[in-house]
Fold this protein.
Amino acid sequence: MADDLISLMIDGVPVSVPKGTLVIEAAKQTGVLVPHYCYHPGLPVAGVCRMCLVEIEKAPKLQIACATQVAEGMVVHTQSTQAKQGRTGVLELLLINHPLDCPICDQAGECELQDFTFQEGRPATRYSPEYAKRFNPVEDFGPDVLYVPNRCILCTRCVRFMEDVAKEPVLNVSERGDRAYVGIHPAARLDHPWAGNVVDLCPVGSLLSKDFLHKARAWELDKAASVCTGCSQGCNVTLDTRENVVVRVRPRPNLQVNRYFICDHGRLNYRWMNRGDRIEAPLVRRGGELHATDWDEACERVATLLRGAGGKAVALVSPKASTEALFLARELFAGLDWTGAFQVVMGEEAPLAGVPELALRAERAPNGRGAELLGYSRDYPAALSAAETASVVLVLDEPESAVRTAGALIYVGTMLPERAREAAVVLPIANVAEEDGTFVNRDGRVQRYFQAKPAPGMARPAWWVLSEVSATLGRGERLATADEAFDRLAASVDAFRGLSYGRLGFAGLPAPAAVPVAVPA
Amino acid sequence: MGYPHKPHARETVLLSKHFGEADARSYKGWVKRGGYEMLERALAMEPAKIIDLVKESGLRGRGGAGFPTGLKWSFMPKEKRKPHYLCVNADESEPGTFKDREIMRWTPHALLEGAAIAARAIQAEVTYIYIRGEFTEPWAVMAKALAEAKAAGVFGRGKIHLHRGAGAYICGEETALMNSIEGKRGNPRIKPPFPAAAGVFGMPTTINNVETLAAVPLILKQGPAWYKGLSLASPKSTGTKLFSVCGHVQRPGNYEVTMGFPLKDLLYELAGGMRPGRTLKACIPGGSSVPILDRDETESCLLDYEGVVERGSMLGSGGVIVFDDSTDMVYQIMRLARFYAHESCAQCTQCREGTAWTTKILERILAGQGKTADLDLLLDLSENMTGKTICVLSDSCAAPVVSGIKKFKNEFEDYIAGRRKPVLVA
């Protein structure tokens, strides 16, 4: 192995990286971020912005770190006077035609042009204010994308994304010289199912999301690592919240799952997380009506129903529920003749052509695989008919469920649909943005998501609610964290054995059951 | 020879021997003049042997960079794993250069023969001749000649295509030319990989200038030693070179002289000197991309790769632009900068923004609104535009600006100080 490693020195720090590594990536290993615009690890190298100029000893002139491969014994200086002057020169040129309209630009605060200019730009321009700046009107590129050409630095990330990753080359660089701008095919729209990524890729405020337009300043946002609930792919995302309202979903890099991208379906499908019509307190049936109560009474009522249950029990669960909740729901029925099932909403599959194994999946369920691993069936109609004669039915976050039962209905959910008003007990739970938990994606990868905002009223994570009921039944300790819930799951279910919540980290791990058996070498 | 002028006695007429002879354009006429004999000889030779001959001759690329041709050919993979390509760069767009145009107009078969020999040497199956879009007459002549040569079976199983440019200066840059052939936007590529590894369509490719290839049959005919002997000064520069002389001389045109010929003699004897009552002020010796020489430098300059570098410029493409004392150097430099600003492909920041900014500053100086600080700004800007981009277009814009300010600073200062009447720049 060691033979394939190349040793070099970057700003006095020795580093060894695999052959073929680019200097800009090797620099990251030493903790140095070489300023850059056109380079993006998810796109082919263009080498056009010329921002990542570094000095390499024995090279006759400055080199761009993004297109130069490491060589044995190479000595790189990213902070030498010459390199810095080269980059300062680029920054000055990038700004001469830039409108400097940061106060009304959505990108302000997360703009690489701002950041690097503050870092190593000139304090003032030498471009005379008498010269006109390049002006082109804003263009409507697609359903969610606006192009503001005046802010464009022509890094071509968007062009390369559409050409090489989406494989739908509708963008190009039109015109030449300082008249150049990003053009769109006159008969095309930027409406590819993954087109929204160009907004994230744009290092400046030139490509904007209409959905996020003027919604928040970057510095007002809180960020939480999460997993997209749009389909079974399990793309890693960041939920951006402003005052506890989710305002934006952006991709979070995970080379094993979604690389640097998410589809527009996942990106724009977050408004339900902010719904106001939530159940804010546990409800119990008293005198034919549901009455708000405290958690103790509600849990006691559920425990009583379960203790008294004879015959069949049915669980109708959502494939959007956390693995922990699905596990604890199953545990409630221990000793009973139970059936558990989930139903999956289906949609159209939309692959991202340039990335293998990445698509908006037809199965619009983030945790169908998790439910399967925990023994839930896909035969929802059978479970529905079993529910009719069951003595107790638990519905976990399935507002659309067509459940009918002669027995007792326990409804655990975020909202109170009409049918749930017949329930004996209603337990309010948090949604995905309001709790910690895990999903298992279609490939069997167990991935954590983190809380982005508080749950309303008395609503609690489903795993907490179900563990309270368990404890009330006298089965096991109360669980305080998703960490504890997951570890209990991993200790008792073979499909998860050996995993720990901590080790899942931000990138997740494959569930052991999903790992192909290694062939001994 | 400076057609339509008669050849001057001091010219060494090899490439231009048949300029002006309409009959030489036809296949028959060319064969009558001994054409295609060398191709036959080359086809009987081992490819490596042809490369060795060209290496020995000392022939260097006539497109501008002056890279040794034989060495370039030898970079092609010895073991053939992929199809090899030959590209002929006939996108002659460098302001002040019009030599390839004449070769194609008068001796199209010389180019075709040279290309066929080169294709043999590098084992190329396919040859592309990329002709500048504006070259309507050369295109027609080449198309006719190619049809005749194909009919005569000159290329055997090899494929040869004419490809017409669409009017972009940058497509004369070798990798931009390859992108253009592929149907892509004519943007220069990052090197490495070099064309010999991955050129047109990602295949090993050699690209040569028209004049370079036209010289190859001559080298085969008379031998590398003879060609190497054609050298008046530096032994590293051999053979003859066509110089396109334009501007303030009495007889502008193409002149073919041996490497190392004095620039002074080219201007005053061959091209007839300045107009009556005028004196030489400056000269751009190698096409618009190279630094400007002042009068002293011009008059002491020897025309070969080393000689011109010694005077602080470059031989380039051999486009000699002459300025007499009536010339407004600030205006000339602005016109050059404007050309590069217009032709920048817009990839690299320094070039896209720098060429346009340079032009604006120069226009403002000409309009009488310049500031003293503008000169330092121009120099600093030029420094930023030199050696930092994918290709050398941006360097080419900076070269005349830097040399112009260095050598004709007083003219800039006259505009800035208001001692000179402002020029309305349209």
Notes: Chain A has a mean pLDDT of 95.
